[in-house]
Write a structure and sequence with these properties.
The chain is α+β, with helices and mostly antiparallel strands. Helices cover 33% and strands 19% of the residues. Helix 3 crosses helix 7. Keywords: Signal.
Length: 232
């Protein structure tokens, strides 16, 4: 009986894994057909799930349509990512005065240049496809002056089931180094060279990768990311 239950549990896990892959294209980062017959800006604007409505408002206020379409690669932050930033800012202003609020309108009141500087860190001139990435990755200059980020392709051990799924998935990460680059041991243990946890690098998973528009490459950042790498 225990053996049967164990087998059924494994089957359930496997089915759940494949379902998640099909829905979000997280594992291995891509869709069966990654080609999109429109520009990066138009794809963001026409997304059927309306995942980028807030992102688009920021892009438009910043006057970044051409910058987005001229980027070789755009690591696009979705509405959740912008929302995370707004939540952090709300907490920040409430510490000064509990009557204060920070909303999307507050964000859109930033100057176009401020918004361009923040959104521009996700734009790169290089076409960063999976075949060009590695572990530990490389440092790339973003569209924002003096802001470079690490882009890497890292093998993970999740979803491995003996005799069924043996190929380890690889994820694309976008990383902002805080101070000196973190040290990663073979065991996976990560720490800052100063051993200060507040100086740990900010490492962001891409939940969908490898979309190819008519103007460039698109990777979609994890919902958990805070826009502009804002720290709590």
């Amino acid at each position: 009986m225990k053996k049967i239950l164990y087998t059924l549990l494994n089957i359930s896990i496997i089915l759940l894994f494949f379902s998640a892959c099909k829905k979000d294209a997280v594992i291995d980062g891509g869709l069966s057909d990654p080609n999109i017959n429109m520009t990066t800006y138009d794809w963001i604007k026409s997304n059927p799930r309306s995942m980028f409505d807030t992102t688009l408002r920021v892009i438009d206020k910043a006057g970044m349509k051409d910058i987005i379409n001229n980027a070789g690669t755009f690591f696009v932050p979705n509405d959740y990512v912008i929302g995370n930033y707004i939540t952090l800012k709300q907490t920040e202003v409430r510490k000064k005065d509990e009557r204060l609020n920070f909303t999307l309108d507050s964000l859109l009141n930033y100057t176009p240049q401020m918004l361009r500087d923040s959104m521009g860190i996700y734009c790169f001139k290089d076409k960063l496809t999976r075949d060009k990435l590695s572990n530990p990755g490389a440092l790339y200059q973003s569209n924002t002056a003096n802001v470079s980020l690490w882009v890497s392709l890292i093998e993970a051990s999740q979803y491995i089931v003996d005799g069924v799924i043996s190929t380890k998935p690889k994820y694309i990460y976008l990383t902002k180094v805080i101070g000196d680059k973190d040290i990663v041991e073979s065991s996976g243990l990560t720490y800052d060279p100063t051993n200060d946890p507040k100086k740990l690098d900010i490492k962001v998973l891409c939940q969908t990768t490898g979309l190819i528009t008519t103007t460039g490459i698109v990777h979609v950042l994890s919902n958990a990311h805070n826009w502009s790498f804002k720290q709590q």
